[in-house]
Amino acid sequence: MAIFQRRSLKSSDNERTKAAELTLRQSIYPLALVTILFFLWGFSYGLLDTLNKHFQITLGITRARSSGLQAAYFGAYPLASLGHANWILRHYGYKAVFIWGLSLYGIGALIAWPCLIHRSFGGFCAAIFIIGNGLGSLETAANPYITVCGPPRYAEIRINISQAFNGVGTVIAPVLGSYVFFEHTADDPEAVKNVQWVYLAIACFVFLLAGIFYFSPIPEITDADMAYQAEETHANADNLPFHKQYRLFHAAFAQFCYTGAQVAIAGYFINYVTETRPNTSSALGAKFLAGAQGSFALGRFTGVGLMKFIRPRWVFLFYLTMCIVFIAPAITQRGNTGMAMLYITLFFESICFPTIVALGMRGLGKYTKRGSGWIVGGVAGGACVPPLLGAVADLHNSTAIAMTVPLAFFVAAWSYSLCVNFVPSYRDTADKFATAEIGMRPARDEEDGSPKAPPVETEKAES
């Protein structure tokens, strides 16, 4: 009956725990549990890309207006990552944010149900905004947790493996959409109602998962733990005030630009192939999107394999460069050639988001939780860039020409990949963690003679 005992969700950030020195074996269970969350928001994101085209057909709305889905979804991220979720993370801990995010996700999915029944696009956008707050909360905690839970030298590999399950979710969702969402014609009242059962199932699952998280004994990782890791690797940049953490803010900028480009391409992928490839229906376009997301997932697993032998910063630079190289021809090419360019672009997009998170958090020490909020807040680019692409597509009546928008944002994000490889202050911090010995062997118990670290003074942001 110990599982039903009273459990506290509050932890002290000033005390160091053994979580700072977890080995690979000790971190397997918490990492596996948190990885489920990555699948959840990959699935939700994949549904959104499919619904973008679905609502254009069933509700008769423009491409620019349909981007309201992405604007509501990703616009909620900074509200969560810099607001309520980050406050909970700093004052209570990771587990509390996981439960909070799952609860918001479930509430949003339940609200989506009547909105779909009544064919209310505005109401569904409001539900998506609540879901976005839930998923933004989960990302605020899950990305840094995966990065810091276990040996620091494997941080990029860990987060890319977990994010690969995000890719699996984005593959399954368009396949489901191609058979469920596009099964009926636009004038069939069942065309929108079919979506309601998907969101009801999501609500039931996430509420169940919130209960599992509450009763699971996952280790909390404190600011003091992160300060210890940064000090031990001699990469502690937290001796500077938070507002002078320029590497962090550059990473957040890169995340904004990269995520905006990624979301814009996926959100208008179906539009692109139905316009440029002859005899391609929306249902077939959704299947092609599933294939493109499969390419994305494959890119993640391939990137993880490369990171085992090549420094992650070099893999990141190569992948982001290839995104620029292959999105450019998609602007002028048509048919299978243009679609193939997008497939290859999604393959190389794969490792960029998680690698920016991992590299951007290097050396933040006691600022790790606050810093994660800024990097995840960069996901707001997904709310800003798709409307730009949609507006350009409507203006020129061509989604292909509008691919110049994500190309420009890829180039802006590329600046961070160059700095992390060629600017010493960026590069040296990343490399010190890549050779860290923390977590490579079990830590000694305190009773065996290892000294207990003194409490670390942490700086709290004003609530």
Integer average pLDDT:
79
The chain-level structural class is mainly alpha
Distance between the termini: 37 Å
Q: Mind telling me which CATH architecture this is? A: Up-down Bundle
Q: Specify the CATH homologous superfamily.
A: MFS general substrate transporter like domains
Order of helices and strands: HHHHHHHHHHHHHHHHHH
Number of strands: 0
Number of domains: 1
Principal-axis shape: globular
Rg value: 22 Å
Return the CATH class: Mainly Alpha
> Helix content range of the residues, please?
over 70%
Largest sheet: none
Distinct helical segment count: 18
Q: Per DSSP, what share of the residues sits in E-state strands of 2 or more residues?
A: under 5%
Give the low-pLDDT segments: 1-5, 445-463
Look up the CATH topology: Growth Hormone, Chain: A
